[in-house]
Amino acid sequence: MKPVALLSLLALLLVLPAHANPPPEDIPIYAVSLVGSPYRLGGTSPETGLDCSGFVGHVYREASGIMLPRDSRAISQAARPLTQAELQPGDLVFFNTLNRAFSHVGIYLGDDRFVHAASSRSGAVMVSSLNNRYWRERYDGARRVTPPDNAPFIDAMPD
Fold it and tell me: Is the pTM of this model over 0.90?
């Protein structure tokens, strides 16, 4: 991703309105910082490679302390469904890429863009558009990760 495009994306994240229980703003910012990290099936680390659910799990764990299930289908079941109109930066978007529901997941950035560890073909974490024909035809829905009992997001680190 070009530095100018990355700066534009980060600027967009800073001006979007807040809504009830939006994901922590650190999630999309940290996710974008991993663009270019290598793809590896089963991977959970930016240094050695990430697959889609490993990427999402790593971002949520590092940016908010929230532990997510390891596979995209289980992540979809652990999060609250949203309409596409309700999407906020940091929410999750799901796709049917393997002829099964919720087989791919990414993190929504706003402006119909999402960041994800696409595939071994793309080779890296990248930003894509929900308006791209490939992703639009495979869109499976959106989800929001919320802490247990709908508690507000808090810093898990003691002072």
Answer: no
Residue with tokens 């994306």: 9
Does a structural domain hold residue 127?
yes
The answer to whether position 48 is within a domain reads yes
**pLDDT, tens digit, for every residue of 43-53?**
999 999 999 99
Rounded to 5°, the CA angle 107-23-150 comes to 130
29, 31, 32, 52: the active-site residue? 52
H-helix segments, 94-144: 133-138
Q: Which residue out of 58, 116, 143, 144 is catalytically annotated?
A: 116
Q: How far apart are CA 17 and CA 43, in angstroms?
A: 33
Whether residue 27 lies in the annotated active site: no
Query: Is 52 part of the annotated catalytic residue set?
Result: yes
